[in-house]
Specification:
This protein has about 350 residues and is α/β, with parallel strands linked by helices. It has 2 domains: about 190 residues, 3-Layer(aba) Sandwich (D-Maltodextrin-Binding Protein, domain 2), CATH 3.40.190.10; about 150 residues, 3-Layer(aba) Sandwich (D-Maltodextrin-Binding Protein, domain 2), CATH 3.40.190.10. Helices cover about 40% and strands about 20% of the residues. The strands form 2 sheets. Strands 1, 2, 3, 4, 5, 6, 9, 10, 11 and 12 form a 10-stranded mixed β-sheet that branches. Helix 2 links the parallel strand 2 and strand 3. The radius of gyration is 20 Å and the shape is globular. The protein starts with a strand and ends with a helix.
């Protein structure tokens, strides 16, 4: 009989670090019928019901699910690098690039994951690592009852919106792309960080909240405390379904895809099971169910996109490349991440 167990990655990472430092870390044994998947806390219950439980029934593999923030889960992987306790990590593209650079993730054999051939090119890793299994789009979340037309990025700096703006912290999925979109709008391009930070520093007096969690942002918009905020289209879907006056619109410049990826941990005790899980995750049927259940836009070209997603993001929900969206230069972002996070805290949010 299969089962799913929830573990909090933050606590697990702390415990793993303690054991590692004391030299008492336990050795995980290989078991082809057991798999540990680390994923996001947001929508985890629906993910388990829609994806994990059917996978368990189909394969007979028992899946343990860990949840937590990207940074916490990456820390746990570093601590346990010599003896990993996780097989599959579902993590944002930026943190995936960090993990790849640190040697934490393994490449995938396309023959073992045949559904790789059915996904969009932007979802594939050029270096053979795990693919994107869903994506979000950077743009402006806003109160539709406060704007006659969708606001552009430049609207944030207008005096009439002072104190009614929220901005993503650099630790969020939208943080780095928003900096690059600001740099593209006010500078020579997305890598012109000096221009981006100058404008964000000027924006500081307008900002009611620098948010760290999507739930925090949605709550601020729902209560009307915030009228607009740079963010991902995903977080407008449920409010729109509920009939709330919250919409999303793309920026004029700096249209970036923020992808969630599925990575196999290097040294996984069950790589074959991990490849089966990722292949299952990429199948058209599962992609459609995930889109309907927790708003994950599919990367499988054969999967149908629910009307609730196209209502928010338009044609970009089915073909982001045709709508002008591109993937950010993740290698460049990883190289500058620490400096940019520090600079953001000093010049913008501090």
């Amino acid at each position: 009989m299969t089962h799913t167990t929830r573990v909090l990655a933050g606590a697990a990472a702390a415990a793993a670090l303690s054991l590692s430092l004391s030299g008492c870390a336990e050795t995980a044994d290989a078991d082809p019928k057991k798999l540990t998947v680390s994923t996001f806390g947001f929508g985890a219950d629906r993910f388990e019901k829609t994806v994990v439980e059917p996978f368990e029934k189909k394969t007979g593999i028992d899946v343990t699910v860990e949840t937590g923030a990207n940074a916490d889960r990456l820390t746990k992987l570093r601590v346990n690098k010599a003896n990993p306790t996780v097989d599959v990590v579902m993590i944002t593209d930026l943190f995936a690039a960090m993990g790849q650079k640190q040697g934490l993730f393994d490449t995938i054999d396309p023959k073992k994951v045949p559904n790789l051939s059915k996904i969009y090119d932007f979802a594939k890793s050029e270096d053979g690592y795990g693919p994107a299994y869903t994506y979000q789009l950077l743009g402006m979340l806003y109160r539709t009852d406060k704007f006659s037309e969708p606001p552009t990025l430049k609207e944030l700096w207008k005096a009439e919106h002072k104190g009614k703006v929220a901005v993503p912290d650099m630790s969020t999925s939208a943080g780095m792309p928003f900096l690059e979109a600001t740099s593209a709008t006010y500078g020579t391009g997305p890598k012109d960080a000096d221009a981006g930070f100058k404008k964000l520093s000027d924006l500081k007096p307008h900002v009611l909240k620098f948010f760290n969690r999507s739930t925090e942002l949605v709550s601020l918009l729902d209560r009307g405390e915030v009228e607009m905020a740079p963010g991902l289209d995903l977080f407008a879907v449920d409010p729109a379904k509920a009939g709330k006056p919250i919409g999303w619109a793309p920026f004029d410049k700096g249209r970036f895809v923020a992808a969630n990826t599925a990575q196999i941990v290097k040294g996984s005790k069950n790589k074959a099971g991990a490849e089966k899980f990722i292949d299952y995750l990429l199948s058209a049927d599962v992609q459609e169910k995930a889109a309907a259940s927790f708003n994950d836009k599919p990367v499988n070209k054969d999967a149908k996109v629910p009307a609730s997603l196209t209502k928010v993001a338009g044609k970009a929900a089915t073909d982001p490349s045709a709508a002008g969206f591109t993937s950010p230069d993740l290698g460049y972002a990883v190289d500058h991440n620490d400096a940019w996070v520090d600079r953001f805290q000093r010049e913008v949010s501090g």
